[in-house]
Design goal:
- With about 280 residues, this protein is an alpha/beta fold.
- It has a single domain, classed as Rossmann fold, CATH 3.40.50.
- Helix content is about 40%, strand content about 15%.
- The chain has nine helices and seven strands, in the order βαβαβαβαβαβαααβα.
- Strand 5, helix 5 and strand 6 form a beta-alpha-beta unit.
- The longest helix is centred in the middle third of the chain and has 28 residues.
Length: about 280
């Protein structure tokens, strides 16, 4: 008898399945958040709550998601992540539809570009508040719902959207993003702290560090730094991020496949951080 015959193989057919899961996606009405929400629905989530500041944008995003024909449903719940009271209201609205949450994607964020000498103090504070403080407040207020169904074999998930600007040096010069870069470094470290704090309660926390994706928020900076074609040409794999890159990564981190990832992060930049000095 061969050694292989003695090995009991597990069933991996559902290793990426999110059947029946409930997810909340902040900043989910466009860009990376919307792509991630699409992946969550297509992987089997029963409910995906889409939240951002503008009600019309949330409604439009949910209409597009529900048109995919997935068994699950996208539900719009507008809220301003920069306001703690609005985050509390968001949690209360979600509780009208479900008694638990399995996945929280903390994706809402902002950036600001300006030269060092004239970089506004209030802009720096605004970016830090939204990209770091609101992530902490959001996870804190959703924690009771994340704990509700969390178990050792089926932990809940928190995924934080950071950036490679938090790992290297972000944009400098006339469009420098000092607050954004600092905030994304802080977001990565916040994920590590939450992983240690909440891991014993069966809530895993991870982060994603994307490079350039053609989104509305990134489009201005991309044009200032050479445009899509030049940026793609200077990336080792010769392309920028695509919708399925972010969707697939979020599904992996939230499924059984990512069940032993806690406190880590996934870099989604095609090798740009290693292959060139300008981010």
């Amino acid at each position: 008898m061969s050694a292989a015959a003695d090995v009991k193989l597990q069933d991996f057919k559902s290793i990426f399945s999110l059947d029946g899961k409930v997810a909340v996606v902040t900043g989910g009405s466009r860009g990376l958040g919307l792509h991630a929400a699409s992946g969550l629905l297509q992987a089997g989530c029963a409910k995906v709550f889409i939240t951002s500041r503008k009600a019309a944008a949330c409604d439009e995003a949910c209409a597009a998601l529900n048109a995919l024909g997935c068994p699950g449903t996208a539900i719009a719940v507008p809220a301003d992540q920069a306001r703690s009271a609005d985050i509390a209201r968001l949690v209360a609205e979600v509780e009208k539809h479900t008694d638990h949450v399995d996945i929280l994607l903390a994706n809402a964020g902002a950036t600001w570009g300006a030269p060092f000498d004239s970089h506004p103090e209030e802009a720096f504070a605004k970016v830090m508040d939204l990209n770091v403080k609101s992530v902490f407040v959001c996870t804190q207020k959703f924690a009771p719902l994340l704990r509700k169904n969390a178990t050792l074999s089926s932990p809940s998930r928190i995924v934080i959207t950071a950036s490679i600007a938090g790992l290297g040096v972000g944009s400098l010069g006339p469009h420098a993003t000092f607050g954004y870069s600092a905030s994304k470094a802080a977001a990565l470290h916040l994920a590590r702290n939450l992983a240690v704090e909440l891991g014993p309660e069966h809530i895993l926390t991870t982060a994603i560090a994307p490079g350039f994706f053609p989104t509305k928020m990134a489009s201005g900076l991309m044009e200032m730094t050479g445009g899509v074609e030049e940026l793609a040409a200077t990336t080792p794999n010769k392309r920028l991020g695509q919708a399925e890159d972010i969707a697939g990564t979020v599904v992996y981190l939230c499924s059984r496949a990512g069940g032993h990832v806690n406190g880590g992060y996934v870099v989604l930049d095609g090798g740009a951080l290693n292959g060139r000095s300008r981010l």
